[in-house]
Amino acid sequence: MSSVSNSQQLVVLVSGGGPVGSTFALVLATMMRSHAKIYIYEGRWFVDQDDRTKWQGEGQGRIRRDQVVTLQDHVIHQMPTFIQKGLFSNLNERVWPTSRNIPIREVEDRLLALLEPFVESGQIELVPENLNERTDRLVNGELLFFVFSIKYSKEDMVPNNRIICTDKNIFICDVS
């Protein structure tokens, strides 16, 4: 990360470290290299005693998602090769000839593992908290680019995240 000064880096805040946010961050980190500093905010993460970021589980009073997602081969083939290999190594459950099943929990764990080299290099920072309007990087205007997912609760199907806008930033919304 030393080849580009901090003032020249694109600062990207990603709200949500689930499949969409993590995949986006991986692709952007690969494309932008040292030209971007990416912060991923995820309230379902915690830092363990070995200073490693992990998904909260039963030990933290959370229940991980048990659903299985079916990914079509044509979607998988659009992913960078390292993400394909990371997601599907030792896992090739085919229910249909042109798609594969993978548990959401596995997707989340494997993507988090794929983020690790970018975290070690300093290009990505994992922030184990939810992004909100009081987040320092938003309040201080330290970002140039902001990505967020609108999450819906099962109970009311109303967005849980509020959209935060300023006139000097670029926003991308992924409704999932």
From TrEMBL:
Top-level division of the source organism's lineage: Eukaryota
UniProt keyword Transmembrane present: yes
Assigned keywords, A-Z: Membrane, Transmembrane, Transmembrane helix
Annotated TM spans: 12-31
Protein name: FAD-binding domain-containing protein
Species: Rotaria socialis
